[in-house]
Amino acid sequence: MPDALPPNVTLRRLQRWMSAVVQHPRAAAHAIDASFARAQIAPAAVRRGQVIAPAHNATIFQRIDVYGGAYLARLIEALEGDHRGLGFALGHADFGKLIARYVQRYPSRHPNLNRFGKELPAFIARQSSLPHRLFLRELARLEVTMSLAFDAPEFVPLDASTLPQQSPTDWVHAVLRPNPSLHLLRLRYPANRYLQAVLDDASPRVPRAGLECVAVYRQAGRVWRMTVPAPMAKVLDRLIAGVAIGRALAVRGQQPKDVARWFGEWSGSGFFVAVESPAKGAAPRPLTSCASAPPRSRRRSRRPGS
Fold first, then answer.
1. CB proximity list for 194: less than 8 A, separation 6 or greater
2. Residues 134/189, Cβ–Cβ less than 8 Å
3. pLDDT for 147-157, tens place per residue?
4. Radius of gyration over every alpha carbon of the chain, rounded to an integer in angstroms
5. 182 vs 188, 201, 259, 277, CA distance in Å?
6. pTM of this prediction?
7. Cβ atoms within 10 A of the Cβ of 292, count?
């Protein structure tokens, strides 16, 4: 760095300028002319070497580009690790180009990179020239949810053997509190099936549109995905939303043996953490709309998320 910065360049301005330049998708020679960078430090001062001094073996811009290239490469690497399905569907080169545009629109603002990709599904949906963007959006939704489940607060699963004795009336009005990692997704494409094929080292093709409901959750430090058939989704959706057990089960087509099996699966997977009395005046949370899904196969798949 030069012995003295230009008079009006404070440390805060220098930090903002450096952040803007290294996050810019183009090389430093162009990035310094971007509006936000110009507002912090005049490009002429940069070119004169008043901000970054040249080295004996590198120009001013070559020295800056070392940081810019490494910054973008690290973010691409982080998202590629969290989005193996999306990376496979796009290919490495096109995935990198997509993320470079994403970084420009949504620069990383948090030290936890698990949150960095949360706007990716909506961003993909707006890429009108991107082939298969609606499928890619659903695939990104699934993989973002997996990251959120992994990063959810710690919890202790409900132990059914420790529950106090309650009357049938109490159970009808009781509410199950879901564990904070649990999400129920309504996907318009079978993205979970596609992702599992990728994780199994297959080479799946982009599937046709078709409803798929998937529960994503963390158990014993790992993220899991469960394909949820429509009858189960009708009940699970309501329970997650805070509907009392009696009302959640009051839907057509439920068989007692199925309900007992479902509760056994949910208990074994740690879906819930507590049984509570409903709060007065509390309204249930919105449903995912899996509850209104058309019937699908009852076949269940439970696969590790990584």
1. 85, 89, 139, 204, 206, 207
2. yes
3. 999 999 999 99
4. 25
5. 19, 27, 19, 20
6. 0.78
7. 12
